[in-house]
Specification:
CATH class of the largest domain in chain B: Alpha Beta
Oligomer: heterodimer
Strand content of chain A: 15-25%
Distance between the termini of chain A: 25 Å
Low-confidence stretches of chain B: none
Number of helices of chain B: 12
Distance between the termini of chain B: 42 Å
CATH architecture of the largest domain in chain B: 3-Layer(aba) Sandwich
Radius of gyration of chain A: 21 Å
CATH superfamily of the largest domain in chain B: P-loop containing nucleotide triphosphate hydrolases
Largest sheet of chain A: 8 strands, mixed
Helix content of chain B: 25-40%
Shape of chain A: globular
CATH topology of the largest domain in chain A: Rossmann fold
Strand order of the largest sheet of chain B: 6-7-8-3-9-10-12-11
Number of domains of chain B: 2
CATH class of the largest domain in chain A: Alpha Beta
Radius of gyration of chain B: 21 Å
Number of helices of chain A: 12
Order of helices and strands of chain A: EEEHEEHHEHHHEHEHEEHHHEEH
Largest sheet of chain B: 8 strands, mixed
Strand content of chain B: 15-25%
Low-confidence stretches of chain A: none
CATH topology of the largest domain in chain B: Rossmann fold
């Protein structure tokens, strides 16, 4: 057991939905983006956060970094509450906290300023945080480029001269420029070509080995989550439905939603085809999530209790958390 | 001469795009055949020419693209030199097409019903009422609940999965013999993808319709197809049965593609393919895969590898297929 780096406790984030007319604005409901979730990440750990679109995984990443303010709950980073620190702590402490938490965005075409050279992009954190003396910038940028598998001469180029995979490497280099302890990687490979994805996934793993960095790896692609994560949390409509060590979760899922999700992924092997669980319907709207267990309208095992009672996330076996009334049945 | 049950045959197809930057050789000498009851997969990365190949076959390459040479047969009849009017009978009625993005393939200004009725009335001499009833049946067929109500919905009122179902219904409206599905599930969530795949399988069985699936997802290929054509940079790299492709790939690109995809059922070392897809204005000389190939030798830089037969219904375009062993040490 390593040391906890990040602890998220009962985090909640709703987005208000308004009905507008020319003069009035009426709040008609809330998008329950994150509804009471808790998890923790150790030093050097990658936690995979999976779920379908609209389940709140990206919001989780943003709220953890306080890019979106939370409604209630706590995010503790190295023992300090992130939102409070950024609000009240002295400037130097705020900067130090920002430095240690970074983000890599999904779309490497939108997240790099087209008017800046790669050198400017990667050295901008140095300008802001002043943690590297100016005469060392060049060397530092070069070593970051090398770390992510690019060359020194790339530093003078502009983002449009690079392919998607290379751009994502630049985003990663920029995130690493502040020497962070924790990086949120939000779908870092989903906009890349198949043959390029493996390069970035391997890069993330290498970086972790070399620098001991922790990742929150957000993705809808279960295969890539299995590849890079040590632990996995499955989200559905703003809730964590299951949390376990990676092999445990993939080989012995205990929540019917996880099972359906896993069975839905096509396996690249014509001989090893599994029986598929087809879920009826779509993911319900997070504005008015279903009563009781949020998954009950699509769940093949749903019973009366599921319609009325929201199952708590409970431990079943060591470190395997599951939110389902009937999880024992699947163990 | 044609095989039993051959539906679509493409021979030596070349489709180039005449852009200001130069001539993009998007499809450069591609041949393959799709047979009845044998779902065919076209696999490759973006820019490998998958989509342009099938668009060419249907005669809908947009400018500045042009079919430079090649022949296309449907059930043994050549499609070339047909008038636009005749081609319209082929498209939709014989070959249905489902594109990747249902958001842009459905017209946002017309209701679902309108769009279905239009297709049905183009292909059949139906009255509007009959066409409407057929439309309702189609929506039911693709598993849309409350089909009558949905006929009056606009595309934006439907979810992504529902829109893709509508797009499939529209492709089926002409009762085609062959359905071309171009990355039909890329924009969908996994559980919705499972629904759509299941639907495509059922439809194939019930309507006795063949399928060409275009994808970059090796998982979909394994699950949905019986035969695979691997395309790389506008050329055929390899063609074989799906099992052969996965178990004994003969082309280094096929093997590299398989080794680079993460798997759900186990974690294994990912071997990325170095470099990127070549520029198709000035493609690499010789074998187009040579800059990224770990087996490349001098001959690969100089000569274009011919398509060689390596067994019954198996072809590969690699100079060194006999010397190299691509089986993975699993």
């Amino acid at each position: 057991m390593g040391e906890k780096l990040l602890e998220v406790e009962e985090l909640k984030k709703y987005f208000p939905v308004y009905q507008r007319s020319i003069v009035t604005r009426k709040r008609i409901g809330d998008v329950h983006a994150i509804d009471n979730i808790s998890f923790s990440i150790e030093r050097g750990e990658t936690l995979g956060l999976v779920g379908e679109s609209g389940c709140g995984k990206t919001t989780t990443g943003k709220v953890v970094l306080d890019l979106e303010p939370r409604d209630t709950g706590r995010v503790m980073f190295e023992g300090k509450e992130v939102h409070e620190s950024l609000l009240k702590a002295p400037q130097s402490e705020k900067m130090a906290l920002r430095r240690s938490m970074q983000m890599v965005f999904q779309n490497p075409y939108g997240s790099l300023d087209p008017r800046m050279t790669v050198f400017d992009i990667i050295s901008e954190p140095f300008v802001i945080h002043k943690h590297i003396p100016r005469n060392e910038w060049k060397g530092r940028v070069y070593s970051l480029l090398k770390l992510v598998g690019l060359e020194e001469y790339h530093a003078e180029r502009y983002p449009h001269e690079f392919s998607g995979g290379q751009r994502q490497r630049i985003s990663i280099a920029r995130a690493l420029a502040t020497e962070p302890k924790f990086v949120v990687a939000d779908e870092p490979v989903s906009s890349l070509d198949v043959s390029i994805r493996a390069q970035i996934l391997n890069l993330l793993e290498d970086l972790q080995k070399k620098t001991g960095i922790s990742f929150l790896y957000i993705s809808h692609d279960l295969s890539s989550v299995r590849q890079v994560s040590q632990n996995v949390a499955v989200m559905y409509l703003g809730r964590i439905f299951e949390y376990a060590q990676v092999n445990d979760l993939f080989d012995h899922p205990l929540n019917p939603y996880t099972m359906a999700l896993l069975s839905a992924v096509p396996i690249p092997d014509p001989v090893r085809q599994t029986k598929r669980i087809i879920l009826p319907g779509d993911v319900p709207s997070p504005v008015n999530p279903p009563s009781g267990c949020r998954f009950h309208p699509r769940c093949p095992y749903a019973a009366e209790i599921c319609k009325s009672e929201d199952p708590p996330l409970r431990e079943l076996g060591s470190g395997h958390l599951v939110a389902c009334h009937f999880a024992e049945k699947f163990a | 001469m044609r095989d039993m049950g051959e539906l679509l045959r493409v021979e030596n197809l070349r489709t180039y795009f005449y852009t200001e930057a130069g001539v993009v050789k998007a499809v450069d000498d591609v041949s393959f055949a799709a047979n009845e009851g044998e779902p065919l997969g076209l696999v490759g990365e973006s820019g490998s020419g998958k989509t342009v190949t099938v668009l060419s076959a249907m005669g809908i390459v947009a400018k500045p693209g042009r079919i430079v040479s090649g022949k296309i047969f449907f059930k043994g009849e050549e499609l070339e030199h047909r008038s636009e009017k005749e081609m319209r009978r082929v498209r939709g009625k014989r070959i249905g097409y489902v594109s990747q993005d249902p958001n842009s393939s459905l017209d946002p200004l017309y209701t679902v019903g309108n769009q279905l009725v239009e297709v049905i009335m183009t292909h059949f001499e139906d009255s509007k009422e009959t066409a409407w009833d057929k439309g309702v049946k189609l929506l039911k067929l693709v598993g849309i609940p409350e089909a009558e109500t949905r006929m009056r919905s606009y595309p934006h009122e439907l979810s992504g999965g529902m829109r893709q179902r509508v797009a499939i219904a529209r492709a089926l409206a002409g009762e085609p013999d062959l359905l071309v599905a171009d990355e039909p599930t890329t924009n969908l969530d996994v559980t919705i993808q499972a629904q759509v795949l299941d639907l495509l399988k059922t439809l194939g069985r019930e309507l006795n319709m063949s399928l060409i699936l275009i994808t970059h997802d090796m998982g979909l290929i394994a699950e949905m197809t019986k035969r695979v054509v691997v395309l790389y940079a506008g050329r055929v790299a390899e063609e074989a049965s799906t099992e052969e492709i996965f178990q004994t790939p003969k082309h280094p690109y096929t093997a590299a593609l398989l080794a680079s995809v993460p798997r759900l059922d186990r974690k294994e070392l990912l071997v990325p393919i170095g470099g990127g897809i070549p520029n198709l204005i000035t493609p690499p000389s010789g074998c187009r895969f040579n800059p990224r190939c770990s087996y490349a030798k001098d001959i690969c830089l100089e000569q274009v590898p011919p398509l060689e037969s390596t067994g019954p219904r198996r072809i590969v375009a690699c100079h060194r297929w006999q010397e190299i062993d691509l089986r993975r040490s699993a």
